[in-house]
From TrEMBL:
This is pyridoxal kinase. Residues 95-201 form the Pyridoxamine kinase/Phosphomethylpyrimidine kinase domain. Its EC number is 2.7.1.35. It is an enzyme of class 2 (transferase). One of its GO terms (cellular component) is cytosol. InterPro entries: PM/HMP-P_kinase-1, PyrdxlKinase, Ribokinase-like. SUPFAM superfamilies: Ribokinase-like (SSF53613). Pfam families: Phos_pyr_kin. GO terms for molecular function: ATP binding; pyridoxal kinase activity. Belongs to the pyridoxine kinase family. One of its GO terms (biological process) is pyridoxal 5'-phosphate salvage. PANTHER family: PYRIDOXAL KINASE. Keywords: ATP-binding, Kinase, Nucleotide-binding, Transferase.
Length: 303
């Protein structure tokens, strides 16, 4: 007896939301990568499909970790499976931690494939390479990001160190950050947000939106109040929030960045159970659930 063909289900999303394919890391314990990005985007009304570039027991800041690394062919197999069932209708692609050149090369093919289905696809790239002067990916990834990924990205969200790697010059002042954004605009993305710059003990974000070719970008700075603790996963969540809010305010990147920073500023103090014990810092989903209204509609409390 032949099995009945299951019905094809179609999810119709509200016009102000979208469907996101998120390719980044996953940890069993802790909240980094997709575990930091998916839930906030869902709170903002997005349908999010995660692909885990790696699956580790815990983040790599611990003395040890174990797990699996997805290779490029395995990523492409997933894309082909989605395509075979007509499931590649994404409005956004979000990428974070990627650990090899071969995988990143396949991500570039994914961008082409998704744009063949939806030419208006928005690609938000967090070029996760390192921080505080140190790379934590193979050095050869830097040139691939610089030469191949940046030109196809719609929005780029590097931190200070990553922006230096992509532009080739040091960022030691606010003006350097603004110039770095202009250099990155010239290579492709219309929106650039350097998510954290630390200069002389001050922490701030610099954003830049080039709306039209031939025109100067609209640029801004947001001072970020420092919290006396170390967190992981904040960059992943920040990029997800920037995607979510910038899609709701497509012509107002400074508004989107204000809302993204404000959401983080609301949430982060809740994760500090004992500020003197670094192991007690936890990106806990139950807390996010309790404060989900503030993620969706944060009060802007930044300078």
């Amino acid at each position: 007896m032949a099995r009945a063909t299951p019905p094809i289900l179609s999810l119709v999303l509200p016009s102000e939301t979208g469907r996101v394919l998120s390719i980044q890391s996953h940890t069993v314990q802790g909240y980094v990568g997709n575990k930091s990005a998916v839930f906030p985007l869902q709170l903002l009304g997005y349908d999010v499909d995660p692909i885990n570039s790696v699956q580790f027991s815990n983040h790599t800041g611990y003395p040890s970790f174990k797990g699996q690394v997805l290779n490029g062919q395995q990523l492409w197999d997933l894309i082909e499976g989605l395509e075979a069932n007509d499931l590649l209708c994404y409005t956004h692609l979000l990428t974070g931690y990627i650990g090899s050149v071969s995988f990143l090369d396949v991500v570039l093919e994914v961008v082409k494939k998704l744009r063949s289905v939806n030419p208006k696809l928005i690609y938000v790239c967090d070029p996760v390479m390192g921080d505080e002067g140190k790379l934590y990916v193979p050095p050869e990834l830097v040139s691939v990001y610089r030469e191949k990924v940046v030109p196809v990205a719609s929005m780029l969200t590097p931190n200070q160190f990553e922006a230096e790697q992509l532009t080739g010059f040091r960022i030691v002042s606010e003006q350097d950050g603004l110039e770095a954004c202009k250099v990155l605009h010239s290579r492709g993305p219309s929106k650039v947000v350097i998510t954290s710059i630390s200069i002389n003990g001050n922490l701030f974000l610099i954003g830049s939106h080039k709306k039209n070719k031939g025109q100067s970008p609209q640029q801004f700075k947001i001072i970020i109040p420092k919290i006396p603790a170390y967190f992981t996963g904040t960059g992943d969540m920040m990029t997800a929030l920037l995607l979510g809010w910038s899609n709701k305010y497509p012509d107002n990147l400074d508004k989107a960045a204000e809302l993204a920073v404000s959401s983080l500023q609301v949430l982060l103090p809740s994760f500090i159970f004992n500020p003197n014990d670094q192991k007690s810092l936890c990106m806990a989903k139950p807390i996010i659930r309790k404060r989900c209204f503030e993620v969706f509609s944060p009060a802007i409390r930044i300078c």
